[in-house]
TrEMBL record:
The protein, known as: Quinolinate synthase
Enzyme class: transferase
Annotated cofactor note: Binds 1 [4Fe-4S] cluster per subunit.
Protein localization: Cytoplasm
Cofactor dependence: [4Fe-4S] cluster
Gene3D superfamilies, A to Z: NadA-like
Family named by the database record: Belongs to the quinolinate synthase family. Type 3 subfamily.
Main location (coarse class): cytoplasm
Keyword match Nuclease: no
Purpose: Catalyzes the condensation of iminoaspartate with dihydroxyacetone phosphate to form quinolinate.
Length: 430
């Protein structure tokens, strides 16, 4: 991979004052440190986009990483990873998310969004170990969909997702009880039940299990519209969690009026809504968001249009609605990747998604001008925790016959979660 694709290299240059990029900054100087500096206790998610979010108590903590992996250079780690992977051969498969660091992605067998990687996990039954270079909920999903004899490994256990952490099973269960008390459980004349739960892939296995048990389904940003259609065929309304923006942007595009999309605030009776508002609701939105995509705003789009007349602005549907409305197009990470890959004429793209993906696209397609709408370099804090040192460590432990950092979803959770995931896989992406 072209070295200019490395966000980490760019951050080091910015933080050390060694770059001539005018007006460009990193959102935290701590990004230049190794993630192990933030692993011992979880006071926050670490440097990056979700620094200001509150990490729930009980979140997984990585703990120690042997010093040799912290002090090795990137070149040394690259070589150790390469050798360990070669030794393991077909016994291991490495999955890398689009938002992952370049130094890790270069070793991935598959690069993709959470939907594509979930499918890959399911399609590689011969691999004894699946190393998921993404975040915690993705590794849980891989464990649910993979075979019982496969070990799913998350190189750094502290790589969670601040959005997924905004909806926990207790709060969603409480919300569900209030809603079913309000709506009852009787289907209407068309056989549609009062409410269907839909969880975004970016949620805990427990919430996927909740959906499986309550007639619901999982969605990703690639298939949210297909999944909402699936839900409206079976239910009068939807409870959508945890990402309010994906829910609102998708339902709005399907013609659901904003007044029929109340926001549910946990801890307030009826989520802070009246019974009348909820009676008229089509989509009840959980009050969650992604701190990476929340950084984008309409002013950035206006600036891009001033600076680059004719620019093509594409944003992710986790962005707030005004940003999606102001953009030329919106879509999942795979949609964005394809839009760039398929552009036949040299084009200027301003992209509203995570910086690692944007910078990789810029390096891969030099015939285009590609930049991130956000001028501040601020990667996803949690994805950033998968440093190549952790990848080298888990691989070398595997070579030594030891499985570390295995993610195991208990079978009583995995069973209903698999039901909700299989419904999604059968519903097919748009
Ligand atoms: S980009 Fe946002 S939704 Fe994706 S893993 Fe990071 S915090 Fe979670």
């Amino acid at each position: 991979m072209n070295p200019t694709a490395s966000v980490n290299d760019r951050i080091q240059l910015i933080v050390n004052g060694a770059t001539a990029e005018a007006g460009v900054a990193a959102c935290s100087p701590d990004l230049a440190k190794g993630p192990w500096e933030f692993d011992a206790q979880p006071p926050g998610y670490g440097p990056g986009s979700s620094m200001g979010d509150v990490i729930p108590t009980g979140s997984p903590v990585q703990g120690g990483l042997p010093t040799e992996y912290k002090t090795a250079t990137n070149d040394e780690l690259h070589e150790r990873i390469r050798v360990a992977k070669e030794t393991l051969g077909e016994r291991v498969v490495i999955l890398g998310h689009f938002y992952q660091r370049e130094e890790v992605v270069r070793h991935a067998d598959y690069l993709g969004d959470s939907y594509q990687l979930a499918v890959q996990a399911k399609n590689r039954p011969e691999a004894e170990a699946i190393i998921f270079c993404g975040v915690h909920f993705m590794a849980e999903t891989a464990d649910i969909l993979s075979s019982a004899n496969q070990a799913v490994i998350l190189p750094n256990l502290a790589a969670g997702c601040s959005m997924a952490d905004m909806a926990d099973i207790d709060s969603v269960t409480q919300c569900w009880e209030e809603l079913t008390a309000l709506y009852g459980t009787e289907p209407d004349a068309d056989g549609r039940v009062p409410i269907i739960p839909v969880t975004y892939m970016n949620s805990s296995a427990a919430l996927k299990g909740f959906c499986g048990e309550n007639g619901g389904i999982v969605c990703t940003s690639s298939n949210a519209e297909t999944v909402l259609k699936w839900a409206f065929e079976r239910g009068q309304r939807v409870l959508f969690f945890p990402d309010q923006h994906l829910g609102r942007n998708t339902a709005k595009a399907m013609g659901v009026p904003l007044e029929a999309m109340p926001l549910w605030h946990g801890r307030k009776p009826l989520g802070g809504n009246t019974a009348v508002e909820l009676a008229e609701a089509r989509v009840i939105l959980w009050n969650g968001f992604c701190s990476v995509h929340k950084r984008f705003n309409v002013g950035q789009i206006e600036q891009a249009r001033r600076d680059h007349p004719g620019v093509r602005v594409i944003v992710h549907p986790e962005c707030p609605m005004p940003v999606v409305d102001a953009a030329d197009e919106y879509g999942s990470t795979e949609y964005i990747r394809k839009a760039v890959a398929e552009a036949t004429e040299p084009t200027t793209f301003a992209i509203g998604t995570e910086i690692n993906m944007v910078q990789r696209l810029a390096a891969q397609y030099p015939q285009h001008t590609i930049f991130c709408l956000d001028p501040v370099v601020c990667p996803c804090s949690t994805m950033y925790r998968i440093h190549p040192g952790y990848l080298a460590w888990v691989l070398e432990r595997l070579v030594a016959g030891e499985v570390v950092n295995q993610i195991v979803v208990p079978e009583d959770v995995a069973l209903p979660a698999r039901v909700a995931l299989e419904r999604m896989l059968a519903a097919k992406p748009v």
